[in-house]
Amino acid sequence: MRAVLTLAALAAATLVASGPAGAAPGTPKDPLAAYGYHLYGQYCLACHGPNAAGRFKEPSAASGAGPGRAQGQQGGIGPSLQGVGALAADFYLRTGYMPLRHVGLQPRRRRVFLGEHQIRALVAYIASFGGPPIPTPRPDLGNLSQGQALFTEHCAGCHQVVAQGGYVTGALPPALVLATPRQVAQAVRIGPYVMPKFSRSSISDRQLDSIVRYVEFTKNPTRPGGWGLGYVGPVPEGLVTWFLAIPALLVLCLILGRRLRS
Amino acid sequence: MTRRAVRWVDQRTASAPLLRKALRYLFPDHWSFLLGEVALYAFVVLVATGIYLTFFFVDSTKEVVFRGDYYPALYGQRMSEAYESVVHLSLAVHAGLLIRQTHHWAANVFIAAIVLHLFRIFFTGAYRKPRELTYWLGVTMLMLALLEAYMGYSLVDDLMSGMGLVIGYSVGLSLPFVGQNLMNWLFDGMFPGSANLWPRMYIAHVLIFPILIGLLLGAHLLLVALRHHTQFRRKKAQTERTIVGVPAWPGQAPRSLGLMVGTAGFLFLLGGLVQINPIWLWGPYHTYSSTNGAQPDWYLGWLIGGLRLMPGFDLTIAGYTLVPNPFWGGAAFPLIVFGFLYFWPWLERRFTGDHAFHNLLDRPRDAPVRTAIGIGMISWVFLVFLAGASDRVNVTFGIGYVSQIWIYRVVVWVLPVLFGFVAWWTCRELQASEVVVQERHAAEAEARLARMRRRHEPPGDPGALES
Amino acid sequence: MSRVRNAIVSGLVLLLGRRRRRRPSEEETRLVPALPPNPAAELAVLGLLGLSSLSAVGFILIYAFADSVPAATPLLGATIGLAFLFLAAALVVVGLKLVPTEEIAEEYPPHEHPGEQQVIAELMDESGTRFTRARLFKLGLLGAGGTLGLAALAPAVSFGPLFHVGDFLRTPWRRGRRLVDENGKPYKASDIAEKDFYLAFPEGTSDEQKNQMAASLVVIRLPPHELHLPPHLKGYDANGILAYSRICTHAGCAITLYRAPLFQPDEPRPALVCPCHYSTFDPATGGTVTFGPAGRDLPLLPLYVDSSGYLRAKGNFDGPVGPSWWGVRLWKAQP
């Protein structure tokens, strides 16, 4: 919360610094997008810069007392959002990935910070720069088995074959239990943080439907053998061996080894 | 009725003297003496469930297309016949999954029980003369059990087992001077080997290794019986020369039978209620596919830890690679651990000069140095084992993997020494407190005796007791 | 139902009681000490045995109707497991409460048997007195035994190419061979996008051949200005497209992790990572190891783009594919 407030304060400061408030040149005409523009100034501007153009650290050689240096000290840098479209804006806001706590962190799923109307407004504002629309995956059209195979080829290396999340040096690919079909489809096309960005030539929309269908399946996979243990294999199984089976057998040994007291 | 049956058997087998002895064989009393029995009974369950599984398993890596309508998530995928047969066994054969899961749980428990049994043997000094042979057979069985379990895990040919197999292959390949030839020979070519590999591994898993383990187990038990059990000195009557215990019949038999049936019961309960290795979720293996979070079963966790902890280098001298990296964590590490286990009785004798017969067990505190070395060794292996799960720890608890690896690289060498020292110190303290207690008891007894004497000795009549 | 069970139980108790009453005369010569009956424990055992049979019957019933029973495996496991556990409980009660538990003392077997040792040694020694050339005889025996043992082991050599290890360096790649995807569709250079990664095989390989370690590739594209290939790998990329062996040089797992930062200034650099032990390779510098246990760079396959825009191999890998073995660095990958 505090971090967010800091970000908001920073944003306000930058707004004042970067141009005349009020009738800014980039204000969209659509009222929803205009509200989004307002919110953008509040929450996003500090990192993503005016007009969603992105902000980069100035090279240290270009020293001086200019605004660049001031920005560098603020540390707020983020990619350009021009052309990412409603697809990315919707994803980042609805997963709680943005606003980010600190620059450079891996975005993590958190409680969504903004209200429904605010999200719609921000998405409309970002969409006004162009870019792909929000996708509508159709898992019902996908093929589960193909989805499994595609997921194994493209996703399992990081997200684990039953989408329970994993590790890659430098980042933690999340489990996909909470990812909605739409978010899965969005993430495949965006490649958030260090995730690859899959083009349509690599994963077609129809294939994506299959992958989404498989991800839906992994949220409650076939579990004929009892307690599922999180579907990650041997680590929890070892824990059950040592903390359930062995203690039970030790108790039996203790009962049977207790002799000659009666 | 009983008498007639006994007569019938004796007349035909002349075994009455032997049977009589066996029925009155003595079992000294302590719960920890039952750990080896748990391992034995888990082995019985393994054999029984394993036989059932062989009726369904197909030992072929021939590629087929999966056409089981009972599991749409793999329908139409290419996979080996071996994997297909296990998916079929698990999902389409009544009670097939129960038996497979029980088999797998039994394997996990089998090795856990062997390890606990080994700890008991080590810390009580039960391996000392005259039982070194029994001990060496046991350590050999542990090694065979690890290999046996690894082959069982690999045979299924699912994604995880394939990844495990290629890691084992790489470890074999990394053996200096012989690795490449050896693996080429075993696998009949470079990984993934020829069509001969699966029948080979299958027959090793279901015939050669079980028979080997069974034979060694028989020899192990025979040796135990010939030299009789060791015992703690819990009663005055228990000495190096005299064993005190409950006879096999009638005292011990129902208990041991109960333990056997109970072990089976727990294993079947787990086999039905807790899912283990859901191979239908992992999908088929190809050399070009893999998954995050792939781990071996717990008993090989120490090896994956060793592999992960090694800094990245192949030992290379003047452009000639002598020792590839997987050798250190995957081969040298277990060789050191097993080498230690094999040589320990000899080492201890060497340093203590103790060549005596031992039927009485030490308590861990009675041999502080042994206990310290044992604790140090166990904590060394255990810390490496923990390092093997550091990726899942990162996923679950958010402690960075890279920092964990660096911490382990240090801690693995420091903590065992520390733990060993603490164990040694604790043993010494326990011993010292015992001495204090004994001295107090002795002093109290003496005082009591003196009081009694004073009370009963009529003053001035020293000759009264004699008359 | 319960009345029937009570009848059976009381009948059994009666039967057992009758037998005990029949032999009071043996009392003095008993081996096992006589203890008073414990009817409560006896009843408990009978009850547990009954429960065990009930569970076993339950198992059979569930097995018989497994098709129409949801969650058949847990129910099967619960019933058979309980059947065993009730039986175990019965045996425990028998062991602790019904069977007399006597403690007996007995001598340990003697440390050794000098007399028998003497006899055995004499038997061995005296049987051989007719052999005058004992040492030569032993040598001959050793020779025969040893050679026979070797002869018995010799056929095991045909298990696999023990001495022909050249296959390790054979790869299906040669100059001009196109890169295709899993379905055999050739890759065009324009198909390969930045921040994406692709699985590729040599054109015209069967499904089985795709499993060869040297067959599979991970193909990526980096912006040319980010490439810093070492001198001996100059020209291995095709306009920033790089084809690495998919098999980790550490323990042979498939490299299915591509770390592709969305916003490079803030995020970890691009890397190829193996999920088994997290060996991390830098694709921009020719597959050098940046973290993890791998001891050798990831082999790189040189590429070119043909006139129709297809990706083709320009030659072979710069080093042997797959996990390392002793002497690996002396060898070169061969077609």
Q: What is the strand and helix layout of this fold?
A:
The complex is a heterotrimer of chains A (262), B (467) and C (335).
Chain A: H1 2-18, H2 31-43, H3 45-48, H4 67-74, H5 85-94, H6 116-127, H7 144-154, H8 156-159, H9 181-190, H10 205-218, H11 234-257
Helix pairs in contact in A: 2-6, 5-6, 5-9, 7-10, 9-10
Chain B: H1 2-13, H2 16-23, E1 26-27, H3 35-54, E2 63-65, E3 78-80, H4 81-92, H5 96-124, H6 132-155, H7 159-173, H8 179-187, H9 197-227, E4 242-247, H10 248-273, H11 279-282, H12 301-309, E5 315-317, E6 320-323, H13 326-352, H14 368-388, H15 390-397, H16 401-456
Antiparallel strand pairs in B: 1-4, 2-3, 5-6
Helix pairs in contact in B: 3-5, 3-10, 4-5, 5-6, 5-10, 6-7, 6-9, 6-13, 7-8, 7-13, 12-13, 12-14, 14-16
Chain C: H1 2-21, H2 39-64, H3 72-98, E1 104-107, H4 114-127, H5 134-153, E2 179-180, E3 197-202, E4 217-221, E5 241-245, E6 257-259, E7 271-273, E8 280-282, E9 288-291, E10 300-301, E11 303-305, E12 311-313
Antiparallel strand pairs in C: 2-3, 3-4, 4-5, 5-10, 6-7, 7-8, 8-9, 11-12
Helix pairs in contact in C: 2-3
Describe the structure in your own words.
The complex is a heterotrimer of chains A (262), B (467) and C (335). Chain A is mainly alpha-helical and 262 residues long. Chain A contains eleven helices and no strands. Chain A is elongated, with a radius of gyration of 25 Å. Helix content of chain B is 67%, strand content 4%. In chain B, a hairpin with a 2-residue loop joins strand 5 (315-317) and strand 6 (320-323). In chain B, helix 5 (96-124) packs across helix 10 (248-273), helix 6 (132-155) crosses helix 7 (159-173) and helix 7 (159-173) packs antiparallel against helix 8 (179-187). Chain C has helices at residues 2-21, 39-64, 72-98, 114-127, 134-153; strands at residues 104-107, 179-180, 197-202, 217-221, 241-245, 257-259, 271-273, 280-282, 288-291, 300-301, 303-305, 311-313. At the B-C interface, helix 5, helix 7, helix 8, helix 9 and strand 4 of B face helix 3 and strand 1 of C.
